[in-house]
Design goal:
The two termini are about 30 Å apart. With about 180 residues, the protein is mainly alpha-helical. It is built from 8 helices and no strands.
Length: about 180
């Protein structure tokens, strides 16, 4: 583990670069927190919607349950998996489900698949995309904005504070090496 050690010399000037990097990190993190808050509020609104009796049965059978947390996890996993298409994810979820009362297995799967397609459309209308998607940098792409924002993104206030602390304490080295 790296423990930062403060450089034991004084700088001839104020460490502008250090302060600038710390402020950019804080700004990006505040934007992250704001987007995650909006995302979570939209998912809660989606999951708190009153549903009909059959809809509740379907959600129970699929493991989404009646509580908001189960619904949030279910819908997030159903809509935010980049490895599979929505149709593949729906088929995967519907395959092990037992038939609905009054329907045979194939009719149940068709009905539930159509129900989930409608729910996913409603989800996309109400819930914004994954908040981290805008900050993520994929090496196969050429997007300078996400190159920069992904460098300054942090997962929590603790991680942000720890990084700023470390950067501040090595600023004697970086501050003297970087011209401003």
């Amino acid at each position: 583990m790296f423990l930062p050690i403060k450089a034991n010399f004084t700088l001839p000037r104020f460490p502008i670069m250090t302060v600038l990097v710390c402020l950019v990190c804080i700004g990006v993190h505040i934007k992250q927190q704001s987007e995650w808050h909006d995302f979570n509020m939209a998912i809660v609104k989606f999951c708190a919607t009153e549903r009909g009796h059959i809809d509740k049965i379907i959600f129970d059978r699929l493991g989404a349950g009646q509580d908001i947390e189960s619904c949030m996890q279910f819908m997030y996993s159903l809509t935010e998996d980049p490895e599979k298409s929505e149709a593949e994810r729906i088929a995967e979820v519907v395959r092990p489900m037992r038939p609905l009362t009054g329907y045979n297995l194939n009719d149940s799967r068709t009905y539930v698949s159509m129900f989930l397609e409608e729910e996913i459309q409603r989800y996309h209308r109400l819930v914004p995309g994954d908040p981290d998607e805008g900050l993520a940098y994929y090496t196969g792409s050429w997007n300078p904005l996400t190159m920069i924002t992904s460098s300054f993104a942090h997962g929590s206030w603790f991680q942000l504070r720890r990084s700023d602390y470390a950067f501040k304490h090595i600023s004697g080295v970086t501050g003297s090496a970087l011209p401003v």
